Amino acid sequence: MFAGVHHIAVICSDYQVSKEFYVNKLGLSIIKEVYREERNSYKLDLALHDKYVIELFSFPNPPERPSFPEACGLRHLAFSVEDVEQTATILEDKGIMVEKIRVDSMTNKRFTFFQDPDQLPIELYEV
């Protein structure tokens, strides 16, 4: 039925700060950036390894996340990585705070979390 995940949409409170974070700190590449004047909104299509993955949106005065982290809806975004510890160190060197590395009790895989500028939880999961 499904061929795969097409993209994940993220609404940010400060477009320039989030663009800097996703592009320059996380290393996603820009596919296309559009300013939609009628909505006073930017839409930034981002790729990871040349595969379209995230739509970053800005809207004037978006509501805050209702609670953290257990709000109803999307819980977090997860990136697969070969080495969680190495990736966490790279992020920390870029000024991003990363939680302590844990081990998934069901798979015995290592994982950890960090946050985007709007406190969206992002997971690193070792594969």
UniProtKB/TrEMBL annotation:
Keyword tRNA-binding: no
GO MF annotation list: metal ion binding
Pfam family, one: Glyoxalase
Keyword field: Metal-binding
Domain VOC: 4-127
Calcium listed as a keyword: no
Gene3D superfamilies cross-referenced by the UniProt entry: 2,3-Dihydroxybiphenyl 1,2-Dioxygenase, domain 1
Family matches, as NCBIfam families: PRK11478.1 (NF008551)
The protein's name: Glyoxylase I family protein
